[in-house]
Design a protein that fits this description.
Growth Hormone, Chain: A
């Protein structure tokens, strides 16, 4: 024990240069998290200007996440081999340049292409920021705090997205949301070469093109299959996509086990702390995004708030997430992670149960529920993300960070697809349309809550008011069911944490 304490005391502290580097690395994190939520507010303007088909509109949204998910593992491995700072700078330059192209895209086809390219360069950004923190902050306590700030900035970006998007679109055209990248990335491109040291795997293997292709062939069908469920439900197409992804995934794993220097070291997944932390992040993000999915719709379509006002309503929850993520650092220093993470997730469980018990119609209750949910998610993700890096060798930090980022990306897709799909199914199943409603308005009302509210406005009178009440009642009933599923996901995450995040195993990795 005394030897461990002595080793800890001799670890080099980050100093002012390290904390300045943290500030620089937070800029791309903020940008990517804002970008995840701001685009949906620009879609009406894009539709009016470029007139995309319904399929093209889906691809404008999906092209980025599909390419990003497919390339994260590859990008993390490239950072380990060629330098994480180099990949970060390359990703930032590319992201800024392509953002300008997206802002001035003259057609839907070119905007889709630009979104796909943004996914390529976005994949270079996120794993690099996380893995560079592993090499800058060698002291365990300092690293916990740095990762808490990293997670807090990701949460802050999600909260700022609706507010920033609303402000921009009130004064500028839709392309301005893409130009946000310029003022964010230019300071980073100046600071990073000055304060962020380069780091890489000292014994990298050759780039294996077959592994790169297999990783993309694994992730893209899986992510696309999840999105297919959200749009069309679980059918033959989604099943075929999952089967294709599973087949290529098996080939990818088989190849990694055979390579002398694999692109992704599969031995990482034999460490309970690593795999458990990945699962905790996956389930936590799924639950969080599911809440945001129905919360945003309820605030805008049922309560009648603007996108910007809805963003402000969600700010207390995001602030709670940030404060809890940073505040958990001294607690995690003294207690086992297998106790801290389940304890934090108990707050998230309480948030979902509040909605399941009281419904979403009470605005104060919704704010309180999201606040306690955010507290739990913020604390749990900080500890889990730190364990991902602690349970992986420093030279493989890029690949390990990429796996963590993939869990975040899949969690976001699953939150919308699974919880959003259940909510849509419930809404359509229980919606009772009022008498006297026209066929076209009825079809729109059955499709989505937004369609019902639009039909109610066009119909007007007593019939329109009746449709508005019926749609809100059906949607809020689905919110209760969805909240119970979200609560179940949080319970599963807590059980995973309690059984896998063993502090003794962590100590062995210091």
């Amino acid at each position: 024990m005394s030897q461990t304490i002595s080793q800890q005391s001799t670890v080099r502290k980050a100093g002012w240069r390290g904390w300045t580097a943290l500030c620089a690395l937070m800029l791309p994190v903020l940008l990517v998290s804002v970008d995840n939520t701001v685009l949906s507010f620009a879609l009406p303007g894009i539709s009016a200007d470029l007139a995309p088909t319904s399929v093209q509109q889906l691809w404008i949204i999906d092209a980025y996440s599909l390419v990003l998910a497919g390339l994260l593992v590859t990008a993390g491995s490239l950072g380990d081999r060629f330098g994480r700072r180099r990949m970060l700078l390359l990703g930032s330059l590319g992201f800024a340049a392509v953002s300008v192209l997206a802002a001035f895209a003259p057609s839907a086809e070119l905007l889709i292409a630009a979104r796909a390219l943004l996914g390529v360069f976005g994949a270079l950004l996120m794993p690099s920021t996380l893995s560079l923190l592993r090499s800058i902050f060698l002291d365990r306590d300092e690293r916990r705090l740095a990762l808490a700030v990293w997670a807090a900035m990701f949460s802050a970006g999600a909260a700022l997205g609706p507010i920033v998007g609303g402000l921009i679109l009130e004064h500028f055209w839709w392309g301005a949301v893409f130009l946000l990248a310029i003022p964010v990335l230019v300071p980073m491109l100046i600071l990073v070469p000055l304060v962020v040291p380069e780091s890489r795997d000292p014994r990298p293997g050759p780039v294996d093109i077959r592994s790169v292709l297999l990783s993309m062939a694994t992730m893209v069908p899986v992510v696309y299959g999840i999105k297919e469920i959200a749009v069309a439900g679980f059918g033959h197409t989604a099943l075929a996509l999952f089967a294709i992804g599973a087949a290529f995934g098996w080939l990818f794993v088989r190849r990694q086990l055979r390579l002398e220097v694999p692109m992704l070291d599969m031995a990482l997944f034999r460490r309970a702390g690593f795999t458990g932390a990945i699962l905790v992040n996956l389930l936590s993000v799924t639950a969080l995004v599911g809440f945001l999915y129905f919360g945003a719709q309820h605030l805008q379509l049922v309560v009648g708030l603007s996108p910007m006002e809805s963003g402000f309503v969600l700010v207390p929850g995001m602030v709670a997430m940030i404060v809890a993520g940073i505040g958990v650092v001294p607690i995690a220093r003294r207690l086992r992670a297998s106790a801290v993470v389940p304890g934090a997730l108990a707050f998230s469980l309480a948030g979902y149960l509040l909605i399941a018990w009281g419904g979403a119609h009470d605005l104060g209750l919704l704010i309180a529920a999201f606040t306690v949910l955010g507290m739990g998610i913020g604390a749990a993700e900080t500890v889990a993300t730190e364990l991902v890096l602690t349970n992986s060798p420093a030279e493989k930090a890029g690949a390990a960070s990429a796996v963590s980022e993939t869990a975040y990306e899949l969690g976001a897709v699953l939150g919308t697809s699974i919880l959003g799909g259940v909510l849509t199914w419930w809404y359509r199943s229980v919606l009772v349309l009022p008498d006297g409603l026209g066929a076209q308005a009825a079809a729109a009302a059955r499709e989505t809550l937004a369609g019902a509210m639009g039909a109610a406005d066009r119909t007007g009178g007593a019939v329109g008011d009746a449709l508005r009440r019926a749609a809100a009642e059906a949607f809020d009933g689905g919110v209760v069911v969805t909240s119970l599923i979200g609560a179940a996901l949080v319970v599963i995450a807590a059980v995973v944490a309690a059984t896998t995040l063993d502090r003794r195993r962590e100590a062995a990795q210091r």
